[in-house]
């Protein structure tokens, strides 16, 4: 997939209210697990942390696709 198509797909996902809502709901659920787990439940906290980290990586990847397009456009700009 080319840079332009990747960026367009990333913009579509990041603008989609359902997609954003799902990610936010999952993050909030996992933060709640992290905050309410017992002191002996390290596995639950590690899983919650991993899930939130994975969502952040997805969001950063999508934003990087958009940034890549900007860099591509800047490099290929004709004056």
Distance between the termini: 27 Å
Helix count from the secondary structure assignment: 3
Mean pLDDT: 95
Q: Kindly state the number of beta strands.
A: 0
Oligomer, anyone? single chain
The radius of gyration computed from the alpha-carbon positions, rounded to a whole number of angstroms, is 17 Å
Classify the helix fraction into a percent range. over 70%
- One letter per element, helices H and strands E, the order comes to HHH
What would you say this structure looks like, in words?
This protein is mostly helical. Helices cover 85% and strands 0% of the residues. The protein has three helices and no strands. It has helices spanning 3-15, 17-36, 42-75. Helix 1 (3-15) packs across helix 3 and helix 2 runs antiparallel to helix 3. The longest helix has 34 residues, at 42-75. The protein is elongated and about 60 Å long.
